[in-house]
Structures are given as structure tokens and as C-alpha cells.
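Sample A.
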Amino acid sequence: MYVYISMLAYFVILLLTLRDIRIFRRTGIDSYRKGALKGIAASTVTLFGVLITPGNPEPGLFIVFIGLFINRKGVREKVFNEAGTIDRLFGKTDV
């Protein structure tokens, strides 16, 4: 079960990172570039935790938690005006 939890965290970080990359490419807003760079670093740490989790669940999940903490994003500019949930998930912007 621990492996599934850590893999879910890894895929969520990847999804959010890809969304930030797409928004940055479309708008050029610098905070989304910084968010994408944080996401790349966080996904690397989280992947390391995913690889450790099958052997040692507690340290592996702790490393995954550190990766989630690194993935925290700061204040962002408003790029969604009337986009729905799916559009926001995939990074479609109104700007």
C-alpha cells in the first residue's frame, strides 16, 4: 500500500509540473517557470523516495513527504478566468 501512495504522489507532482510548463510556454509568466523548476526538483526527490519505499516504507514515505514539501508553489498570477476544472488541470489558460 505504501508503494501505491508514494507513486500517486510522484504522478501528482509530475502532472502539476507539466501543467506549469504548459502555462509558462503559453503566457511567459515567470512564476510558472519557477514552479516548473521546483516541480522538477521535487519529482527527483520523490522518485528517490518511491524507489526506497518497497524496502523501507517509513524512510521512503518521509522522503516522498520532503519532495511534496519542495513542490509547494508560491503566489501565482491569475491566468484562469472562466476555465473549467479539466481545463485548469491540463493548463489551458484564458490569458
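Sample B, a different protein:
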Amino acid sequence: MKWIIAVIVAALLTGFVYWQRQGVKVSYVNGLTAYNALPGREYIFQRDCYLFKLDDRVSSWPYVGDHAVVASLPAEVDPKHLDATHPTGRIIDVVRTGDRFKLVSVRRDESRHGTSISFELLFLDEAERKYPRIDAYFIMDHSPEVRGEAPSLLRAYAVERVKY
């Protein structure tokens, strides 16, 4: 009987260690010097994009992007692809050129595979959206991260809104 309990405890401990190693630690880094000026800025989409979920990359919010940044997405952004299952996930909505949003949070995801920074965006017309908050990971320029600087949104996808 003692051996059975020992085996169960060992299996639970092994499962816990495996779960911890596969997990992702999420922290919000809005207050760090490199990122504190980013939240609250408003932007305008410069091209049509999809909102989508990926099977192999978990996020609290749907991702935004198109075929140029995620090759498995259809080349033409068209609502006929909504709810269609694709090799890597599912398309759930379409974002149109001119849609406005603001950057609400800067998130750092740490796992055994590495660390990545992502922006959480909120549509300005959030009450009219099924998915008002989205993850901008794929439409970001991550190259400044290697120098310890803040990433930015790719200008081909979004430009900052000028307020008068």
C-alpha cells in the first residue's frame, strides 16, 4: 500500500514540475521606463486584417494580423473566411482600414522558450465589437527588444492618431 501512495505522489510531483516548465508567466510592464509612455496612445489601422486564435500560441485575447505576418491566413482579407478552421487556428473577425484603437497595456510573457513583449489593444468603439480587446503581437516590430528598447506597431498596419 505504501508503494502505491509513493508512486501516486511521485506521479503528481512529476506532473506538477512538467506543468510549471510548460507554463507562461504573464506580467504587465506598463510602469517600466521603456514602456510607461505607450498606454493610452490612439492608433488607426492602415490595412484590413483578421482577428484570429492560434492552436499553438495561447493568448488571452485574439491576435490581429494578415497573411503577410501569419502565412497560414488567407491572402485576401474577406469575411467569407470567418469561423473557418485553418491549419493553425481559427479566424473569428475582420478589422477594416480606418478602425481606431488605443494601446491599453504592455504585456511580457516569459516561458522556457523565451520572453516576448506584446501590446493589448482596445477598439475605441468597444461597445459595438464582439472582440473589443486584441493582442497585437504579430503586427509589432520586435527588433528594438534585442537592444532593451520598447517594440512598436508596424507602420504598414497602424499609425498613431494625431489629435488636434
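Observation for Sample B: The longest helix spans residues 2-22.
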